[in-house]
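Changelog-adjacent note: as of this version, every example in the card shows the full chain rather than a window. The one below runs 239 residues end to end.
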Amino acid sequence: MSRFPIGQEMTVSYPNFQVRMTLLSMTQLSFEIKEGPFARVETVDIQVVPLGNSLFAVSWQEKDGATVTNVQDHDRGLIHSFATLPGGRFMRMTGTFAVTRPAERVFDDRPQRNKALVIEAMTSLFQRHDASAVERLYAADYIQHNPSIPQGREALRSLVADLSPAVHYEPGLIVAEGDLVAIHGRIRGWADAPQVVIDLFRIENGKLAEHWDVLQNEVPATTARGGIAMFDPEEGQRP
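Full-length structure tokens:
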């Protein structure tokens, strides 16, 4: 409940009209519809039920007797609205929203969830060699920027299914912001020598949608000019 964005003001664009909505508190919101048959300004008492992952069910009854339930998806900027009008007419609408004033306190759980998604993908594919995980974790229109790998999710699934048992990936340091995640790791068996790699992913709708990477053969710390290891599996434990 503490993640509900109290104070946020947004413009919701439904197919036939727009609503300006302000989340006043855990128990009230106000809305304004400027044009059309539903035009009015009203403040309503609401009930908020958290559904997880920045999803909230918000329900209320209006002065004219209309009842409304919104499923607000604050990750994707969507509101799925279900309304029963006074005469019994039932409406289902989905609208996008743009935030015009941010919440009093901003919470964004996406970076942590996206980190977990990337760790799961890298270990499922390149530790356990589980090709079935590709469909579950990667977007159907997955974009691949590595020039040695064909485009698409099916190409990735085939690659994983054909991996040598010698291929093994170790995750290290991982950073995330917004819909992007970068992970530093080491992979053995991919090439003749162990390689240190940085993979960069873009996440969309809870799945890996785009990928870039850079690989470099590992040089042992004993022969490196600076005497520092290129990769340390403990680096991922840093706070």
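Structural remarks: The first strand starts at residue 9 and ends at 13.
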